[in-house]
Write a structure and sequence with these properties.
heterodimer; A: 279 residues; mainly alpha; ABC transporter involved in vitamin B12 uptake, BtuC; 14 helices; B: 236 residues; alpha/beta; Rossmann fold; 2 domains; six-stranded mixed beta sheet; three-stranded antiparallel beta sheet; 8 helices; 9 strands
Chain lengths: 279, 236
């Protein structure tokens, strides 16, 4: 078994996939706390469905790089849901549900009507649940993922204090002169980028797990924003890495293995939280 | 020029008017209590003063060197904050955010200011504690320290004693009073008419009848007498 792992790790594309997987896991954990606490966990889910629809369109249209269509569509939807959602008549949850199921339906419809692929079910399944093995992550998207991850991490660090202020108490932040709308917009864009990134790793149906599990786990044990953020990032990286290794060794699908490990980690944190709270 | 002056202010949502043509002014060092029944527009007035929503008509003028974002706000606690993982220190420091502009991190002067305000509010021993693990009175002190990080000029307090026990309530009022003695102008929204009459210098009563003036004038006014009477009946 160790030999098998060793052989795999010799390949440069496996190494690259591991690095990118770890980076994506790191990014996706960063905004988890904000999403969970702004009661936006559902948005992650909704957006990933939008991304699925966009992916189907991209596949049918046959653009050279799927990201060119998926990224802008998801960003626009995120802006619409996070900002516009407040002002329109259809309220938050309903708007998300509507957009997400509609894009799923249209995506699959377009795929079945227009696709020329011989393995339609396989394509759809990969989009929904992620690649079967880490070996099928494509090199070109590896580079894009790498760059976007670094970008997300940089933005998060630079705007960390502002994200905290706007998440904790938007009214106070606005009254003290912070332009909350601007940062909500920024959040929307970053969330969209993270979703699209994470979709590469674990498919559109499992994306929100990657975003909310580390934050929820960390919140069981830690109680300051900084410690929760750091712990969820570390936990997410550990879970993603071990998930990928397990996937290589046992031949299980990458995405669901990572999410399974995340779930296990949550249970452990939950128990630790119960014990610590007793004191 | 007063610090804050409302001119023919019309408040409401969409086109529904709640308060029509409100006029009042706040001078430096005043302690203004805003009273009135539920639904009379107290919260709307507060949000308008803070710039969180626009008035339907009229305007609020800022003077005497006061800028729009120099009103420290003590909100009622919202739903999000009940389980938000944040330490006392992080929250107080976030009061300095308004002056950061695009600068990403807090300066050491801002950190010192946050520490100073925590000491002033008597919560420095809680600085590493989690916000949702401390008592209601302590939470209010934390939010007050945060507001003081944002400004030293005017504080706008929204029901600062709601949910506090009698001891916490009187401690909170003493704390606010001591800030006022240091020269901080206080605007307070309150249900507690007794406290309003004990501590405030001016009263703004909004609702079916509108009154603005000093505390003594209020006691003699029709709006004041009626309101006090109705409150007495409620208590019995």
């Amino acid at each position: 078994m160790i030999d098998k792992l060793y052989t795999y790790l010799q390949y440069p594309f496996v190494q690259r996939a591991l690095i990118v997987g770890v980076l994506i896991a790191l990014c996706s954990s960063l905004l988890g706390v904000t999403l969970v606490l702004k009661r936006f966990s559902f948005i992650g889910d909704g957006l990933s469905h939008v991304a699925f629809g966009a992916m189907c369109v991209a596949t049918v249209v046959g653009v050279s790089n799927n990201m060119l269509i998926i990224l802008p569509v998801t960003i626009l939807s995120a802006i619409f849901l996070l900002r516009g959602g407040k002002h329109v008549k259809i309220k938050g949850d309903a708007a998300i549900a509507m957009i997400s199921v509609a894009s799923m339906a249209f995506g699959y419809l377009i795929m079945t009507v227009c696709s020329t692929s011989s393995n339609l079910t396989g394509d759809v399944c990969t989009t929904l649940f992620g690649s079967m093995t880490i070996l099928t992550l494509r090199v070109r998207s590896v580079w894009i993922c790498f760059i976007l991850s670094i970008l997300v991490i940089t933005v998060f660090i630079l705007f960390y204090n502002k994200i905290f202020a706007v998440t904790f108490d938007e009214d106070f932040a606005v009254s003290a002169g912070t332009n909350a709308d601007r940062y909500n917009l920024l959040l929307a864009v970053v969330i969209a980028v993270i979703i699209v990134l994470a979709m590469n790793l674990c498919g559109s149906l499992l994306v929100s797990a990657l975003i909310i599990f580390p934050a929820l786990s960390a919140m069981r044990i830690f109680h300051s924003f900084k410690s929760v953020t750091i712990f969820s990032a570390v936990l997410s990286v550990i879970c993603a890495f071990s998930g990928m290794i397990i996937s290589i060794l046992t031949g299980t699908p990458v995405g669901s293995t990572i999410v399974a490990v995340d779930t296990g980690a949550f249970l452990i944190c939950y128990l630790i939280g119960l014990i610590v709270r007793r004191d | 020029m007063p610090l804050l002056q409302a001119e023919d202010l019309i408040l409401g949502y969409n086109s529904h008017v709640i308060v029509d043509r409100l006029n009042f002014k706040v001078e430096k060092g005043d302690y203004l209590c805003i009273v009135g029944n539920n639904g009379s527009g107290k919260t709307t007035l507060m949000r308008t003063i803070l710039g969180l929503q626009d008035p339907l008509g009229g305007k609020i003028l800022f003077g005497d060197g006061l800028k729009k974002n120099e009103i420290g706000y003590l909100p009622q606690q919202n739903e999000i904050q009940k389980d938000f993982p944040a330490s006392v220190e992080e929250i107080v420091l976030s009061g300095c955010q308004g002056r950061c502009g695009l600068r990403p991190f807090y300066s050491s002067a801002e950190k010192a200011l946050a520490r100073e305000n925590m000491t002033k509010m008597g919560i420095e021993h809680l600085s590493k504690k989690s916000f949702f693990r401390i008592s209601g009175g302590q939470k209010q002190r934390v939010l007050l320290a945060r507001a003081l990080c944002a400004t030293r000029k005017v504080l706008l307090l929204d029901e600062p004693v709601s949910g506090l026990d009698p001891q916490g309530t009187s401690e909170m009022y003493e704390l606010i009073d001591s800030l006022r003695k240091e020269g901080v102008t206080i605007l307070m929204i309150s249900h507690d008419i007794d406290a309003a009459l004990t501590y405030s210098s001016h009263i703004l009563h909004i609702g079916a009848e509108v009154f603005f003036g000093t505390k003594d004038e209020y006691l003699k006014s029709r709006a004041g007498k009626k309101f006090l009477l109705s409150k007495d009946e409620e208590d019995q």
